[in-house]
C-alpha cells in the first residue's frame, strides 16, 4: 500500500520506517547461513551483510532465502525471541501482509481465464450496491482498477480512527483479538470521498483488495480462503502457507513479532504483538507463509504455471508510479521493484503489525528471493539490492514495511 502519501499500514508494506531503532543489537546472535552446495553462500555474502546491517540498525531479526541456477541458500540474522535470545529460524512461518494481494490477483486472473469474469467488469456488476455514497460509485470502478490501485477508493487503513483503534497503542492492545467483517472494512473507506476519479491515477489502497476478495466469494460461492487454497496453495504444494480466518496464533515454527505501536519514530517502548487477529487485513494482507513457499509461488507465477500467457501479460501491464520510492510501476498484484542497478524484477512486499516481508523474482522466475523481519521498526534498505545488485542499496529506496501498510505515518499491509 503505497504511493502518494506515506504508505499504508498493516497489510502490505512497511512504513518507511527507519524509525528509531530499539537497541536490539544486545540480543543479536552470530549470523548464520546454509547453502545447497559447497561454497554456495559466497554468492550471497552481500545479502548476509545487508541482513546483519538491518539488525544493527535496530530490527529484531531477519530470515531470508534465495533460489537461483546455483541452488538454494538460506540465511538468518538477529533473534526470534528477545527474551530468550533464540536466533531467527531459517524455516520460520510469518505474516506476509500485502504479499497476500498477489495470491488474490492470481485467483481473479484464473477466473478470467475460465470466463467467469472480465477484468473490465465493474464492481457493481458483481457486488451491486456495495460501493456507493460519498462520491464513491462501483458502476465506474473495474476489477482491473481494484488490482492495480487506480480505483480511487480511499485506503481504509489510512483512517485515523481505524489506526488508533486497531494498529497503535493503546487501541491495538485492547482490540487485538477483535474480528472485522470485510464489508465493515469497506464502510470505513466509504466514509471518505474517493481520492480521485477511477483510472486517472495510481495510489495504493488496501480497500481495493478487500473488494476483490468479496468478488472472489460472489463468483465462486466459496470463501476467499477456500479459493486461494484450492487454486494456488494446494496445487503448488505450499505446505507452510495458510490463511488464518481470524485465528490470532502464528503456527510453529515461528518467531515472536515486535512493534512500537506508535506513529512516532522516536517511540521507545517495544510490544510483543505476535498474537493478534488479522481479519482487519483479510484479502488485503492476512496470509501466513515462509521464505521457501513464497519463492516457489513467485517462481511458478512468473514462469506461467498458474494461468495462460494472456493473463500473465495482463498481470504485468503495470501503471507508472513515479512518486513511489519502493516501486516504479504496479501491475495486477505485483510491481516492478526499484533497485540500485536498475535490475528488472517483479515483487510485492507486505507489512503486518510486527512484521515486514518482501518477495522478489526475475522475469523468468529463475532467481527468487524472500526475506522477513520480525519487527516493524529498524527496517533498513539494502537486502534486495544486495541480492540482485551486489551492493547495500541506495537511500532513495524506501523500506518495504512502510509502503504496504497503513497510511501515514506508519503504513501497514
UniProtKB/TrEMBL annotation:
KW Lipid biosynthesis (keyword) present: no
For this UniProt record, the keywords arranged alphabetically read as follows: Signal
The source's domain of life comes to Bacteria
Renumbered to this chain, the signal peptide range is: 1-28
Q: Answer yes or no on keyword Signal.
A: yes
Report residue spans for region: Disordered.
243-265, 392-413
- Listed InterPro entries: AmpC-like (IPR050491), Beta-lactam-related (IPR001466), Beta-lactam/transpept-like (IPR012338)
- The Beta-lactamase-related domain sits at 51-378
Name of the protein in its database record: Beta-lactamase family protein
